[in-house]
Amino acid sequence: MPEEGEFYGKHGEPRKYDSSFKGPIQNRGCTDILCCVLFILALLGYFAVGILAWSQGDPRKVIYPTDSRGQFCGQAGTPLEKKGMLFYFNIMKCASPMVLLEFQCPTSQMCVETCPDKFLTLVKAYTNKKDWDYYKTFCKEGVSNIIGGIPEILKQGLCPSMLTPSKPFTRRCFPALGLKGGLITVGNNSHFDDGSGTMRDAKDLVDGVKNATVVMEARQVVMKIFEDYTKSWYWILIGLIIAMLTSLLFIVLLRFLAGIMVWVMIVMVILVLGYGIFHCYMEYAALKGEAGSNVTLQEIGFQTDFAVYLQIRQTWLAFMIILAIVEVIIISCSSSSGRGSSSPSLSSKKPAGKISHKASIKETIGHVMCSLFYPIFTFLLLAIVIAYWAVTAVFLSTSNQPIYKVFNETMCDHSRKTCEPANYSISIEKTQCPDSECLFAFYGGETAYHKYLIGLQFYNVFLFFWCANFVTALGQMTLAGAFASHYWAFKKPDDVPAFPVFSSLGRSLRYHTGTLAFGSLILSIVQIIRVLLEYLDHKLKGAHNKCTKFLLCCLKCCFWCLEKCIKFLNRNAYIMTAIYGNNFCTSAKNAFFLLMRNMIRVAVLDKVTDFLLFLGKLLIVGLVGIFAFFFFSGRVKAFEDTAPHLHYYWVPILTVAVGSYLIAHGFFSVYAMCVDTLFLCFLEDLERNDGSAERPYLMPENLRKVLNKKNKTEPAE
Asked: Any transmembrane segments, and where (predicted)?
């Protein structure tokens, strides 16, 4: 009998012996049907949102700059295909504070092939045919047919009053500002003619350029990152494939060489971290004496070009300290786990620790080898979920309509009101405000669809969490059913089903879609609350109310703990559902009571397995990450011609590192799920059976030896 007899009654009765029980029950019915129906309806709604977004959205709004008519500059298959640059008629108008509020300069903007490369005024160009032909490339259509000369051209806003030497920046033409003799210059001149005969100082252009670049800075970073992905996606894919093959190799080697691989993982992780410390020190030492290398991170602030941080000694010092701390922690944990036995494997003498002994896991996974390949199926499903969410989010965010507003330099009652550019020249607004223009302002809308757009975005995020958690839960229940089939088989491996993973997957989808949806729904609600708390915290960062900050911090901590508890309960509930076919609430209760009846065993459960699996993940991320760093950064001459030229080489490196961790986590989670399933089955085995001829233990023979348990039919040693 289990030692925790005093818990019986209070935490449910222990399982009774049942001669008909042969492992996962085959004769079962559908569970949590209501939640299954709700999940299907939610998916149908999700598809409807996607179709609606795809019909209304236009990703070109993110990719291409937009002129005053709302047309896309440089879009293939349009008259503006060869005009990929956006030109501002008067960049100095961008100095208005309204630019930062409305994200639009109150000046005409048009698409051009190239940016102007010299000083030229309309007055001067109009008197010279060659200059006028060049100047007209920066004017609107129909300027050649205007009668009335320069005054009429300026009145109708067909041409800019001047051109200044400019350079393209994020597909936009900005003045080519420089510094000469302590003075701000444009085109090597400190003054310029503004087109009205007045000489202006070049520094007058600074505020306009500054505001325009502030508006575009975030978009610029996003566009550069997007371009980096387009140039390096196939190399990123190769890196992730290498991570997948490495993870699979480690799992297979753990199956056959568990003891050796444990030591190999520990030593290699220590060596990889050691190399990281050495590399950081070499970079730190190399920057000694370099100009600007002693600037602190606080002084430099946030920079969109992360390469700037790598030129600062403090950055490498911080990396070196972090890696050194991780190194010390891993060495300490390895030493403490190794002192208990001749190998760092799971060899605690406590019953719960021995359940994760390497021999038991090796035997179970060895007989259910197809479980090692199941994470690939999970990855494919998660990739579909992530891709659908990302595409829908992009189309939703670009499904607004172009909004045009009245822009005027002088006082005007209609200023900043919406307008129609097609007939603005004959409108009342134009009559009352002759100097005004109807310009593209931003993307928005007044329809019911646009009013509830934020709600659709929220629904997209929530369904993303729900579907992702559902896929993860499906994998957990499938693996639990497969491993339980092996554990409860009377004769191993003869009584194990031919395809335990496929059989378990079929049972999970056919009977327990509702249970999976129920558990993942609860988890998704908690996760979406955490997202809202993070959003609220971001919005209130400027507030100095300590009480509010403390309350938010407590809420974030509580919901983080709640999420961890729900994940633990869900995981064990899925195991019980996979075995007995009960609904979610019943399975969660039975799993919880089973653990409570064996509280001592749970309390002393050895975590060495989790530590070793974490080392495996860390090793794979370290190896693939180091390879990605030397490849994309161009530090190795052999890769200089092969590696793509990127704006930020940290983008593919970070993507490969995060992707490698997720891949390694997926493969190593097979081992973790095996441990959890064997543990619950082990507890039930002790409650159901006593080792007699009528009620023999079904745990693997090597596990019985570790626990000093044996069936009476076995010969005495």
From this structure: 31-54, 233-254, 260-278, 316-337, 372-396, 461-489, 509-533, 611-634, 646-664
Q: How far apart are CA 169 and CA 261, in angstroms?
A: 52
Band of the pLDDT at 376, cuts 50, 70, 90? Answer: confident
Question: Which tops the pLDDT comparison, 4 or 391?
Answer: 391
Question: pTM score, two decimals?
Answer: 0.69
Mean pLDDT of the chain: 76
- Long-range contact pairs involving 181-190 (C-beta distance under 8 Å, separation at least 24): 187/118, 187/119, 189/119
**What is the distance between the alpha carbons of residues 564 and 426, in angstroms, rounded to a whole number?**
64
The size of the chain, in residues, is 717
Task: Yes or no: say if 312 and 295 are a contact pair by the CB < 8 Å rule.
Answer: yes
Q: How many C-beta atoms lie closer than 10 Å to residue 342's C-beta?
A: 8
What digits encode the pLDDT tens for the residues 614-635?
A: 888 888 888 888 888 888 877 6
- pLDDT by residue (tens digit) across 169-209? 767 787 776 555 545 555 555 565 555 556 666 555 555 44
- 150-159 pLDDT, tens digit per residue, is 888 887 778 8
Tell me how far apart the alpha carbons of residues 257 and 469 are, in angstroms, rounded to a whole number: 33
Contact, 190 vs 201, CB < 8 A?
yes
Torsion of Cα atoms, 8 then 13 then 17 then 19, to 10°: -170
**The predicted structure's pLDDT at residue 178:** 57
| 179-180-185-188 Cα dihedral, nearest 10 degrees | -120
Residue 282 in 3-state DSSP? helix
Q: What long-range pairs does 19-23 form, CB within 8 A, spacing at least 24?
A: 21/488, 21/688, 22/488, 22/489, 22/490, 22/495, 23/484, 23/485, 23/487, 23/488, 23/489, 23/579
Rounded CA gap, 427 and 462, in Å?
Answer: 45
Distance (Å, rounded) from C-alpha 4 to C-alpha 23? 25
3-state secondary structure labels for all residues of 237-271: HHHHHHHHHHHHHHHHHHHHCHHHHHHHHHHHHHH
- SS in 3 state form for 92-139? HHHHCCHHHHHCCCCCCEEEECCCCCCCEEHHHHHCCHHHHHHHHHHC
Do you find a cis peptide bond into 116, omega within 30 degrees of 0?
A: no
Residue with tokens 């949590």: 32
Amino acid at 207: D
